[in-house]
Amino acid sequence: MIDAGYRLLADLWNPILDVFQECGVKFALEVHPTENRVDVYSAERALEALDRREEFASISIRAI
What we know:
By secondary structure, the chain is of the alpha+beta class. It has helices at residues 2-23, 40-49; strands at 27-31, 56-61.
């Protein structure tokens, strides 16, 4: 079930990231402590699912 979710992430995001690549745009996400939606392990799995594409460039998890 979890693996299927990451495959779905790739299926949905890769077409968007293709357009980002064409336009020279990079996606960045900054997670604040009160928005604890992403942990390091989930972020790593997302990066792996998207083949570590440059367009999915930055996930910053702030401690403060």
